[in-house]
Amino acid sequence: MEPEAQEAAAAMERYCRGEPAAFHQLYALLAPRILAYLHGLLGDRAAAEDALQLTFLKVHEARATYLRGANPIPWIYTIAHRTSLDEIRKRKRSRVRLSPHGTPGAPDTEPTAHITGVAADQHPDPADRQDASNAAAGALAALAELPESQRQALLLTKVHGRSIAEAALITGSTPGAIKQRAHRAYVTLRRLLGKGDVDAGAGADAGAGATKVAPTRKELA
Amino acid sequence: MTARRDGGDERALANATRLGAPPPALSPELARAVQGMGPVRTRHRFGAVAAVALAGLVWPVIALVHLPHRRDLGALPMAWVIVAAVLWATAFTASLTAALVPRRGDVLPAAGRAARIAVAAMLIVAAFALFASVDAPGVSMHPEERGWSPLRACLHCIGFVFQTAAVFLVAGLVAMRRLIPVGGARAGLALGAGAGAMGGLVLHFICPFASTAHVVLGHVGGMALTAVAGALLAAALIRR
């Protein structure tokens, strides 16, 4: 097990023994990436924050179903995934969704964060800041265009550094389906971002050889 | 070159989803729940499958002890009887375990893997029934001897498979409702296949009809139908 998974498992064990501090440790460790995953799926920061709270509430209610010694990270991602699916279904049932600015379906326009965790509009280099902001806005818009299952596979394998097997577990799918969806998502995303000359081989190994861009704890701190 | 551009896309996605941005403070509801919590007893890896198997095996044991065994049992090759029983029992164990037992180091059973195992188990049992069914001429019974049509005999056995599978399905769905947040249909398919395989195993000893068509349609078909029922019920019932 990776050191981070070991740390999460140790915190989870203490949490199940009834130590509130262990829950806060687990939250500090996992909430940033779960929030990012939910944001990627829902495309809306406020909804993602609500879903994050709901996810951890479900984790709290289901903590007796945890297996001591197991890696809790994919499990918590799975609960977040389920929560986001419920939110998406709820949205589909309501015909019009207003953004915080009152326009139907407009994406939120909060400032984006740099990969280091520094808010993009506070990044030292203004040119970098502008580039990052434009690229992020474009990526988010392109992400929203992807079918739901492809978006999940791409986010989990390419952005969150989950293995193909873990992504299959989280989404309740098969490794083959995840590979295929991640590849298709990758090709579509590059087309939408105006980089149509995609090297098919580069996306085919999505996840298996994916560059992990999930931040380390040091970066998060 | 491509790799560099790939990294750029991933970073743009990470930025877009604000990977690394600080999370919000706990909601009052969550903070209250955490503050007032006590220790909990966590589950055992094989706890769910043991509970489901214990509950579900009551009826098959009663059936095997109290219902009359097939009259051709003594006339069939003993090796074939044993191999067929082992196949049905393996299909039961493998499917039920895949549906309810997580791999070591995981918290949740893998639904996709469970479905693959269940389908493979069904195909193996079906192939065995199709190509290796054995009867004892003059001893094995035909539906006509009871005044039944072949269809009626098949429906009778399918009904028995569902009867045997019912407790497994109910107990398994209750366990899965607690355990499996996603992939419920796939896990339900494995649960239903396992439950149906137990029906097939009991029928192997008590069903008097030995023809290939009957075993494939009535016994393996029953298993397939309970698998479908498990998938549909799990898809409808499992939400978290």
Query: Overall pLDDT of chain B, averaged?
Result: 90
Main interface by residue count = A-B, 89 and 60 residues
What percent of residues of chain A adopt helix (DSSP H or I)?
Answer: 55-70%
How far is it from the N-terminal to the C-terminal residue of chain B, by CA? 44 Å
Largest sheet of chain A: none
In the predicted model, the low-confidence regions of chain B spanning at least 5 consecutive residues are 1-5
Fold and architecture overview:
The complex is a heterodimer of chains A (221) and B (240). In chain A, 65% of the residues lie in helices and 0% in strands. With 221 residues, chain A is mainly α. With 240 residues, chain B is an all-alpha fold. Chain B has nine helices and no strands. Chain B is elongated and about 80 Å long. Chain B is 69% helix and 0% strand. At the A-B interface, α2, α3, α4, α5 and α6 of A face α1, α2, α6 and α8 of B.
Key features of this structure:
heterodimer, A: about 220 residues, mainly alpha, 10 helices, globular, B: about 240 residues, 9 helices, disordered N terminus
